Request: fold
Amino acid sequence: MTSAALNVRLATLHDVVSKVAAFSLERFHNRDKWTIETKGSADYVSAVDRDAETLARRLLTDDVPDDLIVGEEQGGDATGDYWLIDPVDGTANFVSGMPIWAVSIAYVLDDEPVLGAVALPALGTIMWAASDGPLNVTGPLRMIEGSASAAFGIGRNRVWPTAHRLEIETEIEAIGHHVVSLGSCAASLALVASGRLAGYIEHGTNLWDCAAGHVLCLAAKRPSAIIHDRAGHKVAISAGAQR
Reply:
């Protein structure tokens, strides 16, 4: 794909994530009106997740009608070149009225995330970029140059064995970081990219949770790596300071 074609998609990405963020924020302020379900024990999904993904799909199709789209709620063929949508990452926070949740959209080229946008609607911030930079930010959470944050993010999920996670947390604390778990992989990676978290690690997550945030970290010149498991279903993400 040419650089011009990627630039078109980056502009589309910013436009789409901005509109989906506004849509989701309005519903966040009126969340008592929306249906909340569980996919499994403690894995929430709301009508807002589904409606936000539908909106993102429609907007992308309007701009780039021939592109493939994959989403957390509606699925799709995640091979080759495609858009990857997590309409609300951090749904438990969303339904609880906590502001740490994100709209996350990435563009994957030859199976590698190359464009990413993460909106933090309740914090008034949008970040978007190509993996080679620069990192673009609107809103109050501007990039902090040369940050030496004491906080290090760790993700939690039912797939990642607790014993392994606690081992990593102990290692992180031993080198002087304070471990935090914010409940949103995408939001955490955006905070790594902006310098507010020293790093972030999560095993057993999904590509839609971390693809866009991974791109933001690369654009901000912060180390980031996605490792796929042998079955190809789950991934591990490690970004920022290395332990």
